[in-house]
Amino acid sequence: MQNGTLTIENVQRGADQGTYTCIARNKHNYTSQRSVEVQVLVPPKITPFSFARDLNVGDRTSIQCVIGTGDLPLSFTWLKDGHLLQATASSDGVSGGLSGTGGAAVMSSGFVSTSSISSSSPTFHQQYEHVVSNENGRSGGEGSGLVTIRQNDDFTSALSITSVTWAQSGTYTCRVQNDAATVTHSAQLKVNVPPRISPFAFEEEITEGMRTQIMCSSSQGDQPFNITWLRNDVPIISNTVAVKKDENVIEPKDHTTDKRNTFISSDPSLTINQYAQFSSILSIHNVSSRHNGNYTCNVANHAGAVQFTAVLSVSVPPRWVLKPTDQDAILGNLVIMSCTADGFPEPTVQWKQSIGDSGEYRELNYGVSNGNSHSVIETHANGSLIISKVGREHEGHYLCQANNGIGVGLSTLIKLTIHVGPSVTVSKKMFTIRRGERVTIACEATGDRPLEMSWRAKANKIDPAYEIRYHIKNSPLAYGVLSELTILHTALTDRGEYSCIANNAYGHDRSVVHLQVQEPPTFPVNLHVMDLGSRSVTLAWSPNDQDSVILGGGGGNNRDSQPISNYILQYKKSGDVWHEQNNQKLIPGDRTTAQLGSLKPAQSYHIRLYAENHLGTSAPSDVLFFQTDSEVPSAPPQDVTAEPLGAQQLLITWRAPVRDTWNGELLGYTITYQKHNSPNRVKNNTKVSSLRTEGINDFRLIELEKYTQYAITISAYNVKGDGPPSEVALGHTLEDAPSASPQSVSCIALTAQNIQISWQSPPKELCHGIIQGYKIFYEPVYFENEYNGRETKITSAQSTVLHGLHPFTNYSVQVLAFTRAGEGNLSPAVSCTTEEAVPDAPERVKSIVSTESSVIISWLPPRRPNGLITKYNVFIRVLEKGQELKILKEVLPAHNRHFEAKDLNMREVYEAWVTASTRVGQGPSTPVIKLVPNTLVPAAIISFSQTLSVSWRADIKLTCVFVGNPKATAEWKVLNTRLKKHIRMEVNNDNTLSLRNIQRPNEGNYSCVVRNPIGSDHITYQLFVQVPPSAPIVSVNSVHKNSVSLQWRVEDIGGAPLKGFTLTFRREPAEWEELQLDRRINSYVLENLQCGTRYQFTINTYNTIGTSPSSEVESVKTKGDKPSAPPTQSFIRLNTTSITLDLSSWQDGGCPILYFSIEFKLHESSTEWIIVSNKIETNARYNIGDLDPGTAYNLRMTAHNNAGSTHKEFYFKTLDFVEIKNELGRVELPSVQTVFTDAHLLAVIVSSIFGTILALIGALICFKNYPRNGFASNEISLRSPRGTGGKVVQPREHFYGTVRKSCQQSPPESVIGLERIPEYSEDIYPYATFHLPEHENQSGNIPISHTGKSVNYDSRLAVDSTLCSSGTKVKRSASTSVSGTNTNANIEGCDEYKHLNTEKRQKRRSNVIKSESEEYDSLNSDSELSGERVKEDSRCSREASGGEDSGFTGNIFLLITNTNKQYIQIYN
Predict the structure, then answer these.
(1) Are strands 480-487 and 496-504 parallel, antiparallel or unpaired?
(2) How far apart, in whole angstroms, are the C-alpha atoms of residue 318 and residue 340?
(3) Residue-wise pLDDT tens digits, 565-609
(4) pLDDT at position 533, please?
(5) Rounded to 5 degrees, what are φ and ψ at 1153?
(6) Which range among 195-199, 561-565, 961-965, 1141-1145 shows the weakest confidence by mean pLDDT?
(7) Structure letter (DSSP) for residue 366
(8) In sequence order, which residues have a C-beta less than 8 Å from that of residue 293 and are 6 or more positions away?
């Protein structure tokens, strides 16, 4: 401006703030200047804010006052409805309440004034007196909503309300001021109030036909209300609704189509009237039982909804639901008569039975059997009358009555009529007749007429019109009918059951008669060896029931057979023929066993058996052949040693006996061991299968006693038994931890702090070493107290003294012994209690004015009583002007907790203290307190605040003894409990709070508050409820082959210390096992588990209160897998007639292989698998022999371990002679030479021809010297098994069998053997081919099939009740010695009546069944042992190779001969 004024419009801080200088100049060029500093101020700007909508009472809400722009410092002020909110002082310096409506809470940054708050963000609170509305819609008393104001930073202030109330509705304003300006922003807070229902109920004793009504009214809440009614939770729709319409009232929906409604809108007896906008009346004009139920009033508004329910019960007289009627019953049957009535209350139904024709009735009570034990009448509360077996005495009238006390009740009379069904009796149950004779069977029937009689034979009805041999005659009797069945000419087919059947209108009955038709006995069956020795044999057999098979009756015992009087046992050498001069033995008919002696060892015999009774003699039985046993080995094993491998293991090594002393093939060794120099001479034996015949064998003895010296001997065994033992070898197991705890642990208290412990060492045999010392573990029994903690003491003596213990405390003591190898087991816990001592001082003491001349002294018991409190001593010192005048002493019983000192003078000074005493003496005193009598007696509580721990489900009483004048009022309050609902408290007249059946949610603080106009006081009981612990949470730490490591934790121990854990585990799917674990551990390694196996685990824990639920089941599989099969080329080693299996080439998958199962069959030409063995436990090589050269086979192997089993099928083909010859030629004859140029080859050929000629000459000589027997008497020696799978073969498991031929008609017995020699080559059977069952072939060698074709065992035909009519019963394979060459005769077992699947025998079976002896009476032994399974063109084509790897080095020839024909086949 011209006058020197500078004006700046629209000032900006960045552009206009700074220093301005004014310079004045006159005409004389004199200047003058002044400067001014201009600062630009920015007023605050508030970001708009508002409260949330639809807030209900109890909700939380908050708003923030945020300054977007403005200069600091800023001052925040909050107002409600225009009134400032003023902050009050806070005791903790952090937060305070907001009180009044005229003050202000001003928050400023940068400085703090009396009306501002520093930038440390303190918290302010305001408390209003208002009416709150809780979730039930009921009014609380003085509620409060906590208002908090917090300044987050220099630009933000937040106001929050934790629980809004209706009184806090209004306008809240944020006012912000700085040096530039003051600005404000407001937000409206609106709180909705839910409704509250006034209680209502129906009137009592409402009966049908009455009228009733109830009113539902809301005593508070925001309008409008929506009032609806429900019955049994189903909405009620009424026709009449009188209501003042309001657009804000929610109209009920139409529920007439709701399928859940039991009341429909058309019920005229029920109406609902709206009395006002806050009330509704439900009226029922004609009450009936269908109106019974729960009637609920539902009141809702915008803030919430509440309900209240009243129960309506209408009394109804009884009425019939099921009215009983007259009933008919059959004698002996079940009778049920029903009588049902309903009403309200539920009627009681009573049955009565008439007593004769007297018109009187006797009551039949519920649940009580009426009548004697044979005829019981049962009545039940549901109105049923039950007679389990009705008799004639039950016939008559029965009265049913129903009554519920409403009206006259109901009754009805019915009649029960009894009918009699038929009953059939026979005078004789069994008829025995000889075949062809006449027999008559009679029966008598009684019952209501008419009676219809019929007969059945074996379930088939007999009709004389179709079978002329039968005749039926029915004759009437006075009490029934006599029926007679006559069979004119009996036959074997007439055997069996005959049923006489009677029918009438009320049932049917039958009686059974057995008819036996007898004839001479049939030949015995199942002739077998029970016991076999080297010079004797014990035989057993079974009587035959073959005619049952003929008649289609199957197997089983034949009751029709006449008792057998004698058995005739014939036997001969295998090379002899059957004739009348054979050795025989007569056996009584009641015996089925016999013993033959004076036999020769290693000799083959044939045996057959006849049965005889007074009707005649049977045909001979099947032929049984067997071979006597060999002798035991005659020398012991060599170089026996024993070395320790551990605390329970010894490694035993030895060499086989000298070969010449084996006396047969060794099956294995018997290891005998016992404790050396022990008075207990008990010996232990372990059988080991034959391992090696050359070199060193070894075996590991396990599960031996620890730290013990053993004496070991070894003997070899064969099929006969054990040989002599070796020299004694001594071995000593290593030291280990003791397996027993110290014995006789005892303790005695020496003083209040010392206990002496003594014990004896564990038994010597359980020490497992030299005891190095002992560990003593001791802890208080009740370890939840303050003395918790387990302590340990180590000593080498057998007694010790524990020092520094707590007085009068029960200690649990356990002792263990330890060696250099480790610690042993803890002994069972013993308990000792230390001696008593003087107690501590009472825990707390206080004085309370009772009257103007008396004061009450109260105290709590000592925290450490150190014994049983016997009394309390109260001392009162009287002072006058500071001088002690006297000391008064009062002795009180132990149960007293307070004492009233009376007659006190207000001019004197009194001091008091309290001590406690046990039987030992008096303890220290409490602090001295002043006793000040006063004319004013404010409200005060004598009891103390305490912390209590209580077991759940117990009852507890909390005392609150108080004084006050004027009389004080007491109130109990519950704070911080887990229960959300209101706790119902029972307060007695003496102001004791009783809590019953305490549960975990009852935990919390229980406060007793007393008040009078002069003062107030309060105490608080902090209550903890002890419950069983929660289920542990289990996890698997690590998994190994034979162990699993587990870890667990317990989230909630239930408020009481844990006592231990129970680990439950099982191997799927075995039974569960339990293991108790110590409370201090939270992990455990479970050992000795099976490899590759799935296990399940669960754990629970327990405290003094109870046991927790089990944890979730953890499932884990130990490491390891099933075995894996090797390739064929590394597993199978081929030969001409055998293969060798390298079992060690199988991979075990991490789990040791337990055993193998082996089967084989011909490739493609056979579907039946031949079982070699089901359990081969060796892991070395295994040989399968007696195979056909150049033949393809399938081999099926199964390897088993704990993880499972692996099946693998292999294909192989045995070598033939050409392949062996070519192979030998390639190896031994590299250059081609002719016969005439090679002298060695020429010598071999000449010697072979010369040997052949000598053999022929020898055969002719033998033929002339033995014209009848020839080579038929060759001994059948027992095949020596090559492996038994670790099992001992019992002597009875030797070679024997029953040979049977096809069932052909035999020639007359008078024909001698020479006249019955077969004339065709196919009738000569030099070899028989059979197959051993898997459980009998323990040698591991499959004998040769000399026909090139195996005879398969069909397990489908193995039925016990089927005769073995075409098979051979065997126990072992055998070899026949011919011309010095062993020829294996392999026989398939017919063990327990199993059939051979042979087509030729089935084709040649005849209708007449005869024994095998009849078919082979004229043949020699070799023919009898053969079968049709031998083909003509290859009868003599196989010989044993003499070893599994050996080839042919010369000419092999075989001579087969009988009495008139010879066969010779020569192989190069």
Answers:
(1) unpaired
(2) 10
(3) 899 999 988 888 888 777 888 899 889 999 998 887 767 889 999
(4) 81
(5) -75, 130
(6) 561-565
(7) B
(8) 231, 232, 311, 312
Tell me the pTM. 0.42
Q: Give the pLDDT mean for 396-417.
A: 89
Amino acid, single-letter form, for residue 553? G
1303 in Cβ contact with 1413 (< 8 Å): no
Would strands 95-99 and 123-126 be described as parallel, antiparallel, or unpaired? Answer: parallel
CB 636 within 8 A of CB 656: no
pLDDT category at 1406 given cuts 50, 70, 90 is very low
Whether the Cβ atoms of residue 1165 and residue 1141 lie closer than 8 Å to each other: no
What residues contact 363, with CB distance under 8 A and at least 6 apart? 350, 351, 352
Dump pLDDT digits (tens) for 3-56. Answer: 888 988 888 888 888 999 998 888 888 888 899 998 888 899 999 999 988 888
Q: Rounded distance, CA 1257 to CA 1272, Å?
A: 18
Measured in degrees and rounded to the nearest 5, phi and psi for residue 770 equal: -95, 125
- Residue 579: how many other CB atoms lie within 10 Å: 12
Give the residue-averaged pLDDT of 631-647.
Answer: 90
* Residues ≥6 apart with Cβ < 8 Å to 847: 855, 856, 857, 858, 912, 929, 930, 931, 932
The answer to whether residue 856 scores a pLDDT higher than 90 is: yes
Contact 900, 876 (CB under 8 A): no
DSSP per-residue codes, 100-162: -SS--EEEESS---TT---TT--EEEE---B--B-TTSPBPSSB---EEEEEEETTEEEEEES
pLDDT tens, 265-294? 457 788 888 888 889 998 988 888 888 889
Non-local CB neighbours of 1109 within 8 Å, separated by 6+ positions: 1030, 1031, 1100
Give the start-end residues of each E strand in 404-532: 410-419, 423-425, 430-434, 439-446, 452-457, 460-461, 470-476, 480-487, 496-504, 507-518, 525-532
Average pLDDT over residues 1057-1082: 91
Q: Could you tell me the two tokens for 1304?
A: 């052909």
What DSSP letter does each residue of 384-401 carry, written as one string? EEEESS--GGG-EEEEEE
Q: What are the b/e assignments for 141-165, b being 16+ CB within 10 Å?
A: eebbbbbbbbbeebbbbbbebeebb
Rounded distance between C-alpha atoms, residue 1317 and residue 1312, angstroms: 10
Rounded CA-CA distance 757/1340 in Å is: 64
Angstrom CA distances, 429 to 197, 514, 538, 786, stand at: 87, 6, 40, 86
| Residue positions counted in the chain | 1468
Pairing of β 348-355 and β 360-364: antiparallel
Do 889 and 873 meet the contact criterion of CB atoms below 8 Å apart?
Answer: yes
Report the distance separating Cα 1388 and Cα 1300, nearest Å.
12
Provide φ and ψ at 605, rounded to 5°.
-130, 155
For residues 1062 and 1234, which has the higher predicted lDDT (pLDDT)?
A: 1062
Cβ-proximal residues to 356 (8 Å cutoff; 6+ apart), any chain:
none
Give CA–CA dist 416/333, Å, rounded.
13
1337 vs 1194: CA distance, rounded Å: 19
- Quickly list DSSP for 1279-1339: PPPS--TT-PPPTTSSSEEEE----PPPPPTTS-GGGG---SGGG--S--B----TTT--S
CB count in 10 Å sphere of residue 1096: 16
CA dist., res. 1133 & res. 1139, Å (int): 6
Ranked by mean pLDDT, which of 317-321, 796-800, 1129-1133 comes out on top? 796-800
Cα–Cα distance for residue pair 750/735, rounded to 1 Å: 38
Neighbours of 1428 (CB within 10 A): 18
CB 1301 within 8 A of CB 1426: no
What per-residue confidence (pLDDT) applies to 979? 59
Tokens of 839: 């107690």
